[in-house]
Predict the 3D structure of the following.
Amino acid sequence: MNVRILVVGGGGREHAITLALSKNTNTDLYCVMGKKNPGIAKLCREVLIHPETDVGAVLAFAKQQNIKYAVIGLEATLAAGASDVLATAGIGCIGPSKAAARIETDKGFCRNLMQKHEIDGCPTYKLCTTSKEAAEYIRSYPGDLVVKPTGLTGGKGVKVMGEQVDREGAISYAMTLDNQTIILEERLFGEEFTLMAFVDGKTLVPMPLVQDHKRAFEGDKGPNTGGMGSYTLADHTFPFVTDEDYAKAFAIMEATIAALAKEGCPYKGVLYGQFMNTADGPKVIEFNARFGDPEAMNVLTLLDSDFVTIAEHIISGSLTPADISFKKQATVCKYIVPRDYPEYPHAGDPIILEPHENAILYYANVIEEEGILKTQTSRTIAFVGVGADLAEAEAAAETACQGVTGNVRHRTDIGTEALLAKRVEHMKELRG
Ligand code: GLY
């Protein structure tokens, strides 16, 4: 009998998860998603179109479909306690408990945990319970700060002094965050990278390094987005991350999982570490309790092992590095987004795709009406190009993106050799 697996979430990341699971033909796949993602729906036996944070409805659907375990894509579903609720019915989960997911959902919890357990890579920080307290701290702090609420913001709640706002702008922003706990952190300088790992409670197995691009426009300009695209290199690392940096980043993630276990919150699922590689080595920008979006599309495209076996070993606590291998190829993921995303995205605009046989298409925030794809207000679709090297992967993704017509755009610079060279040069300058 086929194993029945439920995916929760309807974005590009969840399309990549569903596609990776579907490669095992002994599966029957199901999905709960807020809107019908046409790519996911095609891979599933049945879907429930319903808000993913309604964990009571997720449980009812899982029981009705006799689901063995669920893979949770979205942080908001974890924050709502999906893993705990499913556990009450004996349904396993790739995604941590609500308590363990605080590593993402409560940035104050994350920093306090790192500090208490003396985990490396924690920037100096201050938690403020009122915006007045935050404003006073910002005014008196000698350097630049990063201002964010401690709760979930979909990646769009961060303001970096000296980059997006000046001191007065940071204060004004903090004043808009009243009734929320605000975290103020020292601004980090360097190059960002994402390290994700599968975690079975104690063992972590890393995935290839990925670099995401948060800013809306070419040259890392404009407002923050959910992520405009990302790339991996064929050797799964980056020239601006040394072996020592990598080892430190992975050790930080292992120490964090051990600390969570000591605090009574064992962690099963995917741990996402967003690092800033600074002159002094990697520092944690934040942890997430699930795959990154877009990063999932890079790494799951490369996954060479059976995702179903990995999931089962996560649930049974028997994960080993031998379970997991990735193709030694480069990937470039580029998101097509509504033209005025993220500030004034227009929904309902038709898009037309040309044939794109050299890139993998992942559907995201898009609906299909009478055979026509239409934009919604978030990222629309993504193309992942795969190649022997970055140039080949980038060309494949870019050609596919150029074949899309409609009121949409994408970042043409993601995955280009020129952008990578800029990152390498920046790191050299920082390290002297
Ligand atoms: N790529 C950033 C995130 O998934 O949060």
Observations:
- The chain has a mean pLDDT of 97.
- The longest helix spans residues 243-262.
- The pocket of glycine is lined by residues 155, 212, 227, 288, 292-293, 295 (CB under 6 Å).
